[in-house]
């Protein structure tokens, strides 16, 4: 059985709000949020790691590319555990890369590099880690999307209103790039 904690973000969370406290989370029982067509599950974040890294999963159906965005101070890791995910990245010199990742494949996105991804197969899953001097961005998913109590994907994709995208950059180090285009 997984314990529940009250946190500044949620009335009930499986993640303790303070650092220095060991904890265990059963499969799928982290803090969940729906955003776009995906389910994000947070297992560790800023509160537990003193702002040094986060650990989360993202799972979803085959779908549309998520919007291009950049993290000024955060490095991000994409490790694929199921399905297939196409990762789009542009380096700081403007060169673009596109790679289809399948289970066991790893993608690294340095800070200041625009990137996006698209789930290419139904029930694809990414294990993500983000770290950097600017902290972590795991609470971004439920701020832009919506907290989810139940397991599973959203019944309908949750697409935020365009003006909501501009509300997250300072707090979560996520800046969307609505004019960005991928060459492929």
TrEMBL record:
Entries under Pfam families matching the protein: Cupin_2
InterPro entries (alphabetical): Cupin_2 (IPR013096), QDO-like (IPR053146), RmlC-like_jellyroll (IPR014710), RmlC_Cupin_sf (IPR011051)
Domain Cupin type-2: 61-119
Protein name: Cupin domain-containing protein
UniProt organism field: Amycolatopsis acidicola
Organism classification: Bacteria, Bacillati, Actinomycetota, Actinomycetes, Pseudonocardiales
